[in-house]
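request received
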Amino acid sequence: MIDLAFMSEAWGKLLAGVPLTLQLALLATALGGALAVALAAMRVSGIAALDAAARFYVFAFRGSPLLVQIFLIYYGLGQFRAVRLSFLWPFLREPYWCAVLALTLNTAAYASEIIRGGLLSVPRGEIEAARACGMSRSLAFRRIILPLALRQALPAYGNELILMVKATSLASIITLMEITGIAAKLVSDTYRVIEVFVAAGALYLAINFALTRIVMAVEYWLTPHLRPVPVIALDTGDAG
Amino acid sequence: MNQVGFLELMGFGPQGWGPSMLFGALMTLAVAGSGFLLGAAIGTLGAWAKIAGGRVARSLADLYTTVLRGIPDLLVIYLFYFGGGMVLSSIAHLFGEGGFISLPGFAAGALAIGVVSGAHHTEVFRGAFRAVSRGEIEAARAVGMSRMLCFRRIIAPLVLRYALPGLGNVWQLVLKESALVSVTGVVELVREAQIGAGSTRQPFDFFISAAALYLCITTLSGWMMRRAERHFSRGMARA
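response:
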């Protein structure tokens, strides 16, 4: 029933969508990560207005589906004349940039909570030590608090990265030909549903497996203090 | 194109889309609810396989949760929508019916959501089972309860209590996932907003209303979940 020759052909065609999928996921995670740091900093800043603004942002973007956010940006913004006339229109007209923008704003909301968790886990003593050395608040944040928080947040961030790769599939709904887009087109051309979607699913699994491995490697690299101490063979040395 | 004001557009007057949008929201709840219940059933089986199953059952359950959490939900929905039609048609073919029979969008969507959320349910139930202390189960067996009775009276209620926060998270995920079911043509909230946007050329008004309705639903269900958690952990010491 399942045609292996066709499946390998489909596999070849689907591979062409991998660069776009990865590009969307990585671009959105990078931009969203920067926004997330800013949001998390607002949450812990202790300034009520900033805190409330970040809180509302996270509430709005975590409480509504990504698909609605994509539609709101791709179809919705064009409703306003001011947007259509602005310098941003060449970008907002493109499904690619709309997808990047929606994914970025969405992941920033989730990631800011992850980073906030990391920020709160930084031990008081480390912050006090940094301040006692004479670091200003911003220097201590940049050199001590943020690096420790990011390291702490890394495993959860890895999960978010995988969620992002999965979320890029929604870009196919606004005509982008990434893996899911190509799969849907292949299905409507050939009517071979199972083969195409199994191949596409395997491709996503492979990407996500590779990403988990990379995140694990980075985590290992960043936590030398948690590794078992290597046993160094003592040089007994023959004195003579 | 004369633009209608937002309040009139989303109101309940002759030009208002309010009733349709609210009906869409009900449809969203129906799709999400049936998917969630199906997922809970699958999750119970999955957790059982992971906790008490033999080697085969355990690795099947592991494979299921790994695969379903590693591929996009949209792909699963497409698979059920198109694939379900294919399977139905070939079954009909056996009975001499020609032509293509498609699986109704609602069924395909609820099935897909059930299968995807089943993977999350499995992990939630498994984690909750591990929180049940062994002593409680041993005590139940010691007073002579059969395995079934012990499951029904002791394990299931305790697991549900520990699983409640996790189930709340899964429900929120399922609610947002149900937006994807709009690709099958089920007229839920997103599809209704698309229809409205198409016929009035005011997409922003429709999608922002859809987003607001989703926010209402998620906030309300979050509040109910917190109340339920408080209610069912009355007998526990608060940390």
